[in-house]
């Protein structure tokens, strides 16, 4: 009788593991007992704990599918929230979903390392199926184009992790030191894939420009007739996504910039001050 009970428990445990392995979404909570980052000299640290989506300064570029990057709370790496992208079972084409960082100034730094945690399905994304991918792309033109792939899930030793476990990835970004309009995009790409998740994204540097000098906050985004800039600003310029200058000027004393003349769409606004030039994508929705 004991043998039969033990055998039944083993079978049940094996079935549970296989169900999680083959699942399209994470069904197991892993807890929050993970290392805490040293946040000194970070250009970006995003743990998705603000409750705002997308987080301040971040942009989501969704494809035609309703499933895109969003906030989640089921199994955070730390805290209470994280970002994830679900597969779309109703879609007949490829999902191509971008989660785009704020613009970062890499001038004056001596090192730059990106660290983040991710969840991914080995079963649906590596073997026996290779239906979707998780990438990190880099831009040096304020996010207007992303020509460089700096990370792919296969760059992290896949033999050392299981489906939907939190895994740490690190990327050396030393080749981008000196760029004043650096942007990262975390990209979900594929068809008939599974859930992917991100948490605790950190770009840490040494010798960076003081945070107070490079931090530029704009709101609201999406904007209607006005956008406000919280920063020391000498002037601004607004460009189309293909790089055409649409307008430029100086914000008023409240940091207000008129966008009433712009049609609905996505633009890049570049802010200039004495030491820093930064660009951010903004969406206009009248």
Explain this structure to me?
- The chain is mainly β and 286 residues long.
- It has two domains: 23-211, Sandwich (Jelly Rolls), CATH 2.60.120; 216-284, Immunoglobulin-like.
- Helix content is 10%, strand content 37%.
- The chain is built from three helices and 18 strands.
- Strands 1, 3, 4, 6, 9 and 11 form a six-stranded antiparallel beta sheet that branches. It has a five-stranded antiparallel beta sheet with strand order 2-5-10-7-8, with no helix packed on it. Strands 15-14-17-18 form a four-stranded antiparallel beta sheet, with no helix packed on it.
- β14 (235-239) and β15 form a beta hairpin.
- Residues 2-17 and 208-213 have low confidence and may be disordered.
Gist of the model:
The chain is mainly beta and 286 residues long. The protein is built from three helices and 18 strands.
List the helices and strands and how they pair.
Layout: H1 2-22, E1 42-46, E2 59-61, E3 70-72, E4 82-85, E5 95-100, E6 111-119, H2 122-125, E7 132-139, E8 148-152, E9 167-172, E10 183-190, E11 196-206, H3 211-214, E12 217-219, E13 226-230, E14 235-239, E15 245-249, E16 256-258, E17 265-272, E18 277-284
Antiparallel strand pairs: 1-11, 2-5, 3-4, 4-11, 5-10, 6-9, 6-11, 7-8, 7-10, 12-13, 13-16, 14-15, 14-17, 17-18
Name the features.
single chain, 286 residues, mainly beta, Jelly Rolls, Immunoglobulin-like, 2 domains, six-stranded antiparallel sheet, five-stranded antiparallel sheet, disordered N terminus
Fraction of residues in β-strands: 35-45%
Rounded mean pLDDT score: 83
How many strand units?
18
Helix content: 10-25%
- Poorly predicted runs: 2-17, 208-213
Tally of separate helices: 3
Structural class: mainly beta
- The value of Rg in angstroms is 21 Å
Summarize the main sheet. Answer: 6 strands, antiparallel
Per CATH, the architecture of the largest domain is Sandwich
Distance N to C terminus: 71 Å
């Amino acid at each position: 009788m004991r043998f039969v009970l033990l055998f039944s428990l083993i079978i049940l445990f094996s079935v549970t593991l296989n169900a999680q392995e083959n699942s399209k979404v994470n069904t197991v909570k892993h807890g929050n007992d993970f290392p805490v980052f040293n946040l000194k000299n970070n250009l970006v640290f995003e743990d998705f704990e603000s409750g705002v989506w997308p987080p301040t300064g971040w942009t989501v570029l969704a494809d035609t599918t309703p499933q895109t990057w969003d906030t989640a709370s089921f199994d955070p790496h730390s805290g209470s929230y994280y970002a994830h992208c679900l597969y779309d079972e109703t879609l007949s084409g490829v999902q191509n979903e971008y989660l785009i960082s704020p613009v970062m100034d890499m001038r004056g730094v001596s090192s730059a390392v990106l660290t983040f945690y991710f969840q991914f399905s080995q079963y649906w994304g590596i073997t026996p199926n290779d239906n979707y991918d998780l990438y990190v792309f880099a831009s040096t033109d304020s996010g207007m184009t992303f020509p460089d792939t700096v990370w792919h899930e296969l760059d992290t030793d896949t033999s050392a992790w299981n489906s939907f476990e939190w895994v740490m990835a690190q990327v050396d970004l030393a080749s981008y030191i000196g760029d004043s309009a650096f942007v990262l995009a975390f990209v979900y790409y594929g068809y008939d894939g599974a859930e992917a998740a991100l948490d605790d994204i950190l770009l840490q540097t040494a010798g960076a420009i003081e945070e107070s000098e490079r931090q530029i906050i704009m709101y609201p985004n999406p904007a209607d007739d006005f956008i406000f800039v919280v920063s020391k600003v000498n002037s601004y310029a607004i460009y189309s996504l293909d790089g055409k200058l649409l307008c430029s000027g100086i914000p008023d004393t409240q940091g207000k910039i008129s966008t009433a003349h712009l049609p609905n769409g996505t633009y890049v606004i570049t802010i200039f001050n004495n030491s820093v030039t930064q660009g951010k994508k903004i969406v206009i929705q009248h």
